[in-house]
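Write out this protein's structure.
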Amino acid sequence: MIQVSGLQKTFHDRKKGDTHAVRGVSFTCKPGQVFGLLGRNGAGKTTTLRMLATILVPTGGTATVAGFDITEKSAEVRRRIGYLSGETKLYDRLTGRELLQYFGALAGMSATGIGARIEALTERFALAELLDVRVGKMSTGMKQRLSIARVVFHDPEVMIFDEPTAGLDVIAARGVLALIVDLKKQGRTIIYSTHIMTEAERICDEVAIIERGEILTHGSLESIRSQAPSRSVEDVFVQVVTGAGGGTNGDR
């Protein structure tokens, strides 16, 4: 489970002053649930997720992941999560197989367990064409598939996906969504961040719309849909964001 209460993040710049990237965000994501965090680029999605993944330290508020405080028990949190970020870098000199072996070892898996896991994930992620190719020679879509395989490789109980279909073609993107639905059925706790409303409608149980670091509305998918006559999440998104005076902003 993920529990977030009043989470805040302020960045300070000597010239620009303070930038309030996340302003009092609160929500709960339960096991067997996909929680959609919806927002435009710069709305505060990635900063929120980076705090939950213990990459950034909150300025204020609290959050627990799998029962552990993200500030006080950050190492325990990291052991229990899989985190996909657009900023995650892969090692160009490693082959796909070597990269998965490396991250499996970091997670404390045995050589036997790593081999079995690679075999199990090969079909799901179409890894056969990637395992013996160096990362530096892969296309953007191939790297994204490998990145997602890396995230789920150690079978974490909590998974955080930040724009996971970026750079993927339609068929590959559908495969990612199908995977996330399968993970939900297995009882995983999943946060899915996106600006693509149709993806949220397909897989999310609850959604929150974030703009300028604040959650403007959140609830079950059905309750969000009910806010627009068209019953479209996209229409609700436009309605609440423009109603809040949303324009181009500098939040992260």
